């Protein structure tokens, strides 16, 4: 009811505003002189966009047969897209409008029109003020990793944060406006910092940070969405590590947000999602003294279609709460009906692989203790099916620091292709439900594309107490009882509309739906969720939604920032590549 009233108020006050965001060719669109003067205020850091793939298209003014091959090669890596002002790692977020392939169509329709290549908080403010004043659609690109398309948008001005550089290290930290110092190691990183460089720089100082599996993910989207890691069961979410952020709010103010000032924003920015409440220009996060790290990759396999496969997996993951209690976390992958020519597996099999981790804090945490714990669980899971499964728990490897595992096991990531993913967060209740129910849900969710189960929830009994700064955040409330984050992905070939629609429908209505039914009261991880998630407001943010919406309205009453699926985005819709107000209210 509260939401409904708030929205009525917003709609009433908004009815005098233009129906759509300003686009070129309309009277309100800034003149060339105004763009030039913006560029001058930005010391020349304004980019007029031409699609990066255009160099491969003879019809385009930027056609360049000399540079095209490098663009085609780079396109296949995530790192290349993160260095481009407008490219997204997944092609669908630029709507496949200009792939680096002369046989494909090419237009700028799926890209922003202008980019602020920001190097300072002042540049960000200048861009935000310009977009607000001229009512231009405003978006934010850190790296372009986003699985929901929130960092791309047509007919927009984009703030690109990649060139906001700078890292500094602190032996203790006093947030602005606080009278006491927090006695932890801390790192201040500018918004352009990627997790790989942050990890490495921390490692060089015998420090370890909470970071995910991808080196090119940036601090902006990762922290604002929550940020899970194999160290989350030990230290909490990445957002739980934040001591302070510097942000530019949509009203153009540069603010330090922390537990002592701007507490509402501090709460919202840690889990409320990117490009919604403002633009992060730098973050200060806690770092931890490094520690031994133990890891192994264990497998289960059986002949394809073995009716016991999903029951065995269900039994296995019913032991995840017990592994969590021993301090063990995991990234695990279920892939039914696969062959592996590299491993000489030419007959299809149903396979499970888990990378298990034991951040070691006590002398009793040894390679043998990890192997023993896993062996027991694998044996228990498979006991009912003698002779049907192959399983392997190889001797774990001990690394002197987490980063050494990370460096040796995380190669450069791929880019390109059309993909979306879906998510559901599972707690002890769902993991320990009866085997038949769990197996049925997992099978429906993962029998075709396969699924990933990440044992990375902060709901466990790890050896460290997680301090929730400022009394907590959105993310600490949503992930409170979570043990496993489930991810399912679907792909389709570019320009194959039928397959695209079929895959999207299967993801939303079949695969994720099976997990929704298993865990109806549970949530999804906003950074790795289905962009078409029904009722996304409740699914991503639960009971926090009203408070998040009120904060959005307070700092961004005219919707300078807009994205989907994001807090407070009701009342707008993209129609023919233009962001417009929806005339008659909206559904929640
Ligand atoms: C290969 C891969 C592996 C991943 N692994 C993990 C993992 O292990 N753990 C995990 O938690 N997540 C993981 N993710 C998901 C990741 O957290 C999200 O994709 C996240 O949104 C990336 O943030 P970004 O800033 O790098 O990307 P972007 O696409 O640039 O931005 C994502 C969102 O954040 C906004 N944003 C970016 N910068 C800022 C800023 N400075 N201020 C305000 N808003 C900003 C964007 O507008 C957009 O809404 C992975 C993603 C990929 C593609
Ligand atoms: C902004 O100025 C720089 C330096 O003068 C120039 O290279 C760039 O093309 C300009 N950008 C736009 C959009 O005109
Ligand atoms: C963005 O700005 C940085 C810092 O000035 C500069 O090195 C880089 O070349 C610029 N990128 C583009 C695409 O203009
Ligand atoms: C790094 O920190 C760990 C944990 O405190 C300590 O055991 C180790 O000796 C340190 N290593 C270096 C090189 O300082
Ligand atoms: C297994 O994969 C093969 C080859 O991709 C396919 O023909 C077959 O239908 C699949 N079987 C099942 C049960 O999915
Ligand atoms: C696969 O088989 C080939 C030929 O028998 C052999 O040379 C290769 O080492 C095998 N690979 C693995 C991973 O077992
Ligand atoms: C790791 O150490 C903790 C004590 O700090 C202990 O409770 C736990 O059982 C150990 N886990 C393993 C797998 O060794
Ligand atoms: C994507 O492109 C198709 C044409 O290929 C167009 O019909 C559609 O409107 C575009 N959608 C968006 C969101 O840009």
UniProtKB/TrEMBL annotation:
<dbReference type="InterPro" id="IPR036318">
    <property type="entry name" value="FAD-bd_PCMH-like_sf"/>
</dbReference>
<dbReference type="InterPro" id="IPR012951">
    <property type="entry name" value="BBE"/>
</dbReference>
<dbReference type="Pfam" id="PF08031">
    <property type="entry name" value="BBE"/>
</dbReference>
<dbReference type="InterPro" id="IPR006093">
    <property type="entry name" value="Oxy_OxRdtase_FAD_BS"/>
</dbReference>
<dbReference type="GO" id="GO:0016491">
    <property type="term" value="F:oxidoreductase activity"/>
</dbReference>
<dbReference type="GO" id="GO:0071949">
    <property type="term" value="F:FAD binding"/>
</dbReference>
<dbReference type="InterPro" id="IPR016169">
    <property type="entry name" value="FAD-bd_PCMH_sub2"/>
</dbReference>
<keyword id="KW-0560">Oxidoreductase</keyword>
<comment type="similarity">
    <text>Belongs to the oxygen-dependent FAD-linked oxidoreductase family.</text>
</comment>
<dbReference type="Pfam" id="PF01565">
    <property type="entry name" value="FAD_binding_4"/>
</dbReference>
<dbReference type="InterPro" id="IPR050432">
    <property type="entry name" value="FAD-linked_Oxidoreductases_BP"/>
</dbReference>
<dbReference type="InterPro" id="IPR006094">
    <property type="entry name" value="Oxid_FAD_bind_N"/>
</dbReference>
<dbReference type="InterPro" id="IPR016166">
    <property type="entry name" value="FAD-bd_PCMH"/>
</dbReference>
<feature type="domain" description="FAD-binding PCMH-type">
    <location>
        <begin position="108"/>
        <end position="290"/>
    </location>
</feature>
<protein>
    <submittedName>
        <fullName>FAD-binding protein</fullName>
    </submittedName>
</protein>
